[in-house]
Each structure stands twice: as C-alpha cells, then as structure tokens.
Amino acid sequence: MSMPVGRSVGESWRALRLPLLITGVVVLAAIVILIATSAQTSGQFSPDSTEPTGARALAALLKNHNVDVHGTESLDDAEEPGDGQTLLIGPGGSLDRYNWQRIADARWSHLVLIRPSGLALDVLAPGVHSTGDVLDLLSRKADCDLPAAAKAGTATVSGYTYSAPENAIACYGDGINNTIVRLDLGGRTVDVIGTPTSFTNARLADDGNAALALNLIGTHQDLTWYLPQWETSGSGPVDEDAPPLIRPDVRYIAWALAFAVLVVAFWRGRRLGPVVAERLPVIVHAAETTEGRARLYRRSRARDRAASALRESALGKLHKAHGIPRRAEPSAVVATVAARTGRDPAMLYELLYGLPPQSDAALMSLSFELDVLTQEVRHP
Known about the structure:
- It is elongated, with a radius of gyration of 41 Å.
- By secondary structure, it is an alpha/beta fold.
- Helix 1 (about 10-40) runs antiparallel to helix 7.
- Helices cover about 45% and strands about 15% of the residues.
- The chain has 12 helices and 9 strands.
C-alpha cells in the first residue's frame, strides 16, 4: 500500500506563515524607513518644506519683498531663464558635466549655488575650490566688501568652505576658508554658499541671517529655485564629490531583505528538540548490504575495487591495534606490523599494498591472508 509523500496545503501554510510574517514585517519596516528618509531628503532646503532643514521661511521672506519664487525639480526649467532672473540651485541630486554645462549655457544673470559639488564648481564657478574643511556653527563677521554681507553684519554660519581666486569676494570665514564666495564672470554673478544652515527655517531668524539671505538671493524679481534630482542626460567624467547614482536608501531595503532572509534561515534551522528515532519501513542488515556490494563487484569483475576495500579494512584494524597514525607511510606500517608479528616485511608489503589480484581465486586467497593477519593482531 503506497503512502502519500509530502505536506498538505494546511501543513505547508502552518510551516510557512511565521517566516512569511517575519519577512513581511521587515520589508514593511524597510519601506517605512525609505519613505521617511526620502521625505527628510526632499525637505532639505526646499522652499515648500516646514522642516528645520527646509527653507519655507526664506521663500516667504522673499515673496514679502516682491520676489516671485518658482520651485522646480525639472532640469528643463533651469535652462530657460528670462531677463533679469536668478537661479538658485539647492544641494543634493546627481548631475553630470553635460547637465551642468546646459545650465552654464543658459542666460542666467545671477546664479546661487548652495553647497555645490566639485563638478558644479568646475563648470559654473571656475577658480573656486572646496577646501574640504567644515566650519562649526558660530556667529561670524563678514570681513569682506560684499554689499549684501556688509548690510547683514554678523551672521550665524557653518558648513563647507571654499578657496577663492583673486578676482572673487570671500566672506564669513576664518581668513583662509570661506563659506560665501562671489564671482563676477562678466554679465553673470555667481554666489557660492557653503552654509545653507544659515538660511533654513531653524536659523533664518538668528543674527543677520535674514538680511544676508534677502540681499544675497533676492537681487531680482524672479527667482527659480531648482532642486537637482537623481538624473543624468549626457556623458562626462564622474564627480567624486557628487552623491552616488544609486540612492543610499536602496541600501536600507537590501540590508532589510538580507536580515529577513537571515532570520528565516535561523528560524528554519533551529533545533526542535531531541532527535526522535523513526521506524524504518524496511530494515536492511549490514551483512546484506555487504553481500549486495560483493555481488555487484563480482558481476562487474571489479577485483581491484574489492581488493582495495579488503585491504583498507585490514589496514584500519592494524592502525587501531598497533597505534599507527592513519597517515603513516606504507614502509612505516609494514615495519611496525613485521616487528609485532614476526612476518617477512616484503610479504607484508605485497599483502597490504601489492597489485590487484588477477583472478577470483587470487582474490579469495588475498581475503583469507588478510583475515589471518587481522586475527593475529587480535589474538597475538
């Protein structure tokens, strides 16, 4: 009578529902983290964000002083300036040289670069380089001749610093490293700002930050506020300072899925208790297995394999009886056995390591001699 093999649908569901539940919870948590992180990233220096790192207060301040603020995430909007317009480029995103060059070729009167990457500086602000230093949050004097900074006076600044060429105006630094640099490129003014913290919702009311932002950014009646995204539309060298093309958020999901797989593996691999003896449907005795293998060797005339099995079994007994290491050389084994049994070493070597027998009678003789030798070991 045949018995069904495998699990039923109910048994499979009961076995899988816990790992599926664990995996679902981990994936859901990863999605929540991704959404929260994305929301936090998108809110950084956004004119619509009310988060502490957002710039909703700055956008409202500019509008109250008759500056029309147009927020956008599209690169096309950053390529279509009108007369007397300002383009503010926020931090983040990933643009290649081709995209930055498209912005440079547009006829913007005023460019404001907020914490730009090295590639953006090369294209839009030649001669300005990041020093790699970061200033701590402190109230600092302008120490420059820039009218916007002179009107604002002391400002609370922190962030990335830049070195400026001779024809540039550098402000709010420590004498070497500056957080604000202005370039006059002949028909275009470029402001490099490494301290977006000064213009965020959390810090705009500190010191002269609001006056500095208004006089620095609100120079024209039309302001396009561009937040770069994770896009590319051309070819060019890789910017080492730019964020990676694969968003860091993707790593959270990958780690979460890996953790879920690890949890399921531990759950499925755990011990359920002591080992339980199970009744076998058929009991096969060791002697029957040996006889079956011998019949197979005889049918295929595999005397070499049969002799090898007999010799390996005899050597195992000799190693155990005389304390010979398992990896001992044949000469050492033969010398030890000859010393213990008094047999001729040459005959022992032929018996234990000789050529395969050429007939069934020779195989039977080999089996008898090996049995006698092992009997001598057991009963010296």
